Amino acid sequence: MVEPAICGMAPENEGGPVEDSCRVTFLPDNRYIVVPKGETILKAAMDADVHINASCGGAGSCGKCRVVVEEGGVEREPNPKLSQEDIAKGYALACQTRVLTDLKVTVPIESRIGDKRIFERKEPEPAHGHLLSAEDWEKRLPPWTLDPPTKKIHLVLPPPSLDDNTSDAERVKRGLAVEAGLRDVIIDYPVLQRLPNVLRQSQWDVTVTVLDSEEELRAVRVEQGDTTERQSAVAIDVGTTTISAELIDLRTGKVVARASDYNAQVAYGEDVISRIIYATKGTGLARLQSVVVGTIWNLIKSLVEKAGIEYCNITHVVVAGNTTMTHLLLGLNPKYIREEPYIPSATFFPWIKASDIGLRIAAGVYLYAIPCVASYVGGDIVAGMLASGIFNTDKLTLYIDIGTNGEMVLGNRDWMLSCSCSAGPAFEGGGVKHGMRATRGAIEQVRINPINYEPMIITVGRRKPIGICGSGLIDALSEMFLTGIINEKGKINLDLPTPRVRATEGGAEYVLVWAEDSATRRDIVITEVDIDNLMRAKAAVYAGIEILLSSVDMDVSMIDELLIAGAFGRYLEVDKAVNIGLLPDIGYDKMKFVGNGSLLGAHLAALSKEMLQRANDIARQMTYLELSTNPAFMDRYLSALFFPHTNLDAFPTVKEKLEQYRSQERTFKRAATAGGEE
Amino acid sequence: MAFSLPTETAKGRIREVEIGAGEKARKVGGENCMPFYLWEGEMPNKPLVAAEVSDEVGELPPALEKVLGDVKNDPVAWAKKAVEEWGAEAIFLTLTSTDPKGSDKSAEEAAETVMKVEEAINVPLIVYGTEDLDKDAEIARVVATKAEGKNLVIGPAKEENHKKIGAPAIGYKHVVSAMTPIDVNLAKQLNILLTNLGMEPDKLIIDPTTGALGYGLEYTYSVMERLKIAALMQDDSMTQMPLLANIGFQAWKTKEAKSSIEDYPEWGDPEKRGIIWETLTAVALMLAGANILVLRHPESIRLVKQLISDLSA
């Protein structure tokens, strides 16, 4: 039983009881939220759905988020935007003020909307509640032990003599059998070459790394002295757009460093199909392989530097990627994945030497790729199935991985049915004018005021905004839709009385951040073309969900649990994803955001042979449904090309919100007209 | 034991839409059964057979030239003749002259023709532009204003210009015909957009775009049928609008309807051929659920009306 390992993989800022929590009450709305001590007032307001004008993402540079702290203790960063006089009056900048105790905060009119009327808004669905906490993770998985596929065995061997004249290799094998109970260990050829010298130089005191691949035991490295305290593994999610890696200390099972970057193959095509086409031309495959290995190498370098370890601490690598990414990484011909009847070279892959694919981390580092199911359901999904424990539950679970390909699995411990639909890179920021990954300066949360259409934004790292990441895009779409900036077709309403909507040569757009507040000194906008791309992506995912369910004669109401994985950044606000019709409207309590399921699964397999075997079992168990030949898919897709969906009745909570917004809008317009006539 | 016919009862009903005003008013839709499944429900209003009239015609197939004669260049006389002599139950006026790629006559000029035709007939009037997004919006604005209170059907409203056509129709109380390219979802989506704009659902007609026999008829058929099934069986409120099938325009442009006897002697009499082509297209779409059938030839009108009466007996 290894709890620490599970703690290590829990996503950051997870839910669960918060030790030091404070209650922040916003006036005059009289709305409150409980946040961890040290949180900024701006973030608290965002999560409480209280509108404060905020243009710079929390960097403290726009000076618009002025609030008055009425009661309670705060910690303020000094800021030139506030004069001594302001401070004396109790003014503070919401993004530069941290909550220390329970608070009462008044949002003055000028920070709010420039209008006295306050909109009633539905209670927000905070993101935190939907993240799987460390405890959740533990409950999902069956008990497992920290028993990684590679083990370091420290041996102090009796030196040979005329009486004990067995060979060096046989001596090591004997030692492994006696000391660790490992019989019939095969000694890797490079180890054999080094063996005589290392044994003698170390005076017969060595550490042997043994890889247990289930089929055989193989001594893959020999080092002088006792190095058993230094053993790490790398888990990698090889995504089409993003590659994420983590370094795990195999003694404790804890993650010691994380890193991620765009897959450099993006330059050769944004989706798997264009990569396959590139790979099948000339030396394309070798090129793509070396490019992805390059990205992985840079990530490993950064992990090793961050953690301050030696490369030779790493004894094995586990990767999880979709079928095409796995093929390209391993240098396998992906050509037939694309051609009917869509056959991959392999779905199960042997342990290989990392150096065989050009990944030269240290001597004797082996690499395992999580097996795939079919051409378009790969090891990333199998890994996600493993991490989320669907193989261990009776609940009917729908697992959705929203990346460049939207893959999903429906099932439980008895059966699993999977499919894949091409969503495109929009949710990872690709194909979106100011889209970006969830790195510093990416807008990750957005609220829009329904009266004056002014946005409130928060960025990753509270920096001046550079662009928008997936979660920010989903937030922005949801807010633009509810406030009527865009209609059900995603078309921007240019008649609105705000300079933030405007027509350009490239089509209509909404200005989320003015140039003066952005880090790029350019307006950050969301264009109709961006909205179209996001609409297509969400429609493909939702159509996939419908087809998957209907093929087993079920509907969304039968889902007990909906697990969402994907590269949205740190979290996804599920209510916003439902508002735009990306996810079915089945009640927020059934939905959990698992983060990067692929990486979590690779992590588990790197830590435990048992879990690695589970992954293999899952890959064997899963059924695959081909959508490209399914005649109903196009119809479902077209009906999903609408916010939230052509069939609004399937989205009862969104319907209710829309009615509420529209009636308030009418009330406001009437009041405004009446006021104007007075 | 007596045999009883198994029947399916619909959950929903097609909205009854009134078109035209005063004594010219007619109702379309209102049924709660699949077309002519009268043992399963009722069809209070039989499909309405409308004659197409154009304010500008180019070359016509001889079969049509022959019946039109001297009214060809006079839409008012043409409309009167269609109603009084041919028995048309509505007039579908195409404002061909407004096409910016053709004569590009002004919306005001076209609106005058509309008003004259409206005065000359005692049946409802449907007014269509030439599917030019901007021009149609302008026509809608002018015609809707001038014809206030006449409860015309104005179209075709498309997704791109639905606001500009919907707004005057709401303001001056007309019915809108919403046109989408042969797709159930798109038809439904446009209805949602128009109702969100403030259009009452019973002021809407769906024009799902028509294909003639041999030119996509089966596609149109299945889309219309699916719209009806969604409306009746699933009680889907945004598909419960009556359907308009613009048949004459499609049927008479087919090779089969307009080729001469010299070109295809083996195809027989071109006049009969054209009429059969139009009539068969109409019959098929009527059985798919069309509530308004727009035809060109008087003989087609007669045959289709005869069939409707036979099926309703």
What does this 3D model show about the protein?
The complex is a heterodimer of chains A (678) and B (313). The longest helix of chain A has 26 residues. Chain A contains 19 helices and 29 strands. Chain B has 313 residues and is an alpha/beta fold. Chain B has an eight-stranded parallel β-sheet. At the A-B interface, helix 18 of A face helix 6 of B.
Q: Classify the oligomer.
A: heterodimer
Rounded to an integer in angstroms, the radius of gyration calculated over CA atoms of chain B is 19 Å
CATH superfamily assignment of chain B? Dihydropteroate synthase-like
First and last CA, distance of chain B: 28 Å
Tally of DSSP helical segments of chain B: 11
| Order of H and E elements of chain B | EEEHHEHEHEHEHEHEHHHEH
**Greatest interface:** A-B, 11 and 12 residues
CATH topology of chain B: TIM Barrel
Q: Which CATH class of the domain at 238-381 in chain A is shown?
A: Alpha Beta
Strand content of chain B: 5-15%
Provide the structure class of chain B: alpha/beta
Q: Work out the count of structural domains of chain B.
A: 1
User: Roughly what is the average pLDDT of chain A, rounded to an integer?
Assistant: 87
Task: Describe the secondary-structure layout.
The complex is a heterodimer of chains A (678) and B (313).
Chain A: H1 3-9, E1 21-27, E2 31-36, H2 41-47, E3 66-71, E4 74-76, H3 84-88, E5 91-93, E6 97-99, E7 103-106, H4 109-112, H5 134-140, E8 150-156, H6 168-180, E9 185-187, H7 189-201, E10 205-212, E11 217-224, E12 232-238, E13 242-249, E14 254-262, H8 272-279, H9 284-307, E15 314-321, H10 323-330, H11 335-338, E16 352-353, E17 366-369, H12 379-388, E18 397-402, E19 405-411, E20 416-422, E21 442-448, E22 455-459, E23 467-468, H13 470-482, E24 501-504, E25 507-513, E26 524-527, H14 528-551, E27 561-566, H15 574-579, E28 591-595, H16 597-607, H17 609-621, E29 623-624, H18 632-640, H19 652-677
Parallel strand pairs in A: 1-7, 9-11, 12-15, 15-17, 18-27, 20-29, 21-23, 27-28
Antiparallel strand pairs in A: 1-2, 3-5, 3-7, 4-6, 8-10, 10-11, 12-13, 13-14, 16-17, 18-19, 19-20, 21-22, 24-25, 25-26
Helix pairs in contact in A: 1-5, 8-9, 12-16, 12-17, 14-18, 16-17
Chain B: E1 17-19, E2 26-28, E3 48-54, H1 62-68, H2 75-84, E4 90-94, H3 107-120, E5 125-128, H4 133-146, E6 153-157, H5 162-171, E7 175-179, H6 184-197, E8 204-207, H7 217-232, E9 244-246, H8 247-251, H9 255-258, H10 270-288, E10 292-295, H11 298-312
Parallel strand pairs in B: 3-4, 3-10, 4-5, 5-6, 6-7, 7-8, 9-10
Antiparallel strand pairs in B: 1-2
Helix pairs in contact in B: 2-3, 3-4, 4-5, 5-6, 7-10, 10-11
